[in-house]
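Q: Okay, next protein. This is Pyridoxine/pyridoxamine 5'-phosphate oxidase from Shewanella algae. I've checked the sequence twice, so it should be correct. Can you predict the 3D structure?
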Amino acid sequence: MTDLSDVRREYTQGGLRRADLAAEPMAQFERWMAQAKDAPLTDPTAMVVATVDETGQPFQRIVLLKRFDQQGFVFFTNLESRKAQQIAVNAKVSLLFPWHPLERQVAVTGVAEALSATEVFKYFVSRPKDSQIAAWVSKQSSKLSARQALESKFAEMKAKFAKGEVPLPKFWGGYRIVPSSVEFWQGGEHRLHDRFLYSRTDDGWEINRLAP
């Protein structure tokens, strides 16, 4: 067994106080995202997306956040992927933004809602052409015999769409995670971390400090 108990450090970049918080979680998230982008962090929009299959087995993967607003957090994916299949069974999803260099993390629970065809198309046409082609190539989460098969398919599709626009695949779409709770975590000295949980209520949002 490899003992990792001595791998530790103090969190010293500063605390988080109730008076510092915005009244709504998306406004607070916007502040922290801006600071993460300015830091700058590598891939500040990277988030862990956790879904659950029909047996109750959770699975996580990193996905890039593409948009957020008062309605929720938006990402795009292959609709035949494992995450999409699991969302079809159980739309409850968890997100985690691990901003370690800032000694921060944001944890979200919510429900995934499929985006409209208009929203999906608008984003798809904004992607670089090679990324559009890649969406056609990969049957996400399926077994693959070798990487060469993937590269050959990409070359084939690139030649096919060389002189025209790349159409939106029917199997490509996106989701909006409508949050029911958002937790902001700021590391603190002596493991006395600051945690604030926004919970959705009938009247808006309730904010509570949680023990570290």
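A: Here is a summary of the prediction. The chain has one domain: 18-209. The longest strand covers residues 172-186.
Q: Noted. On to the next one.
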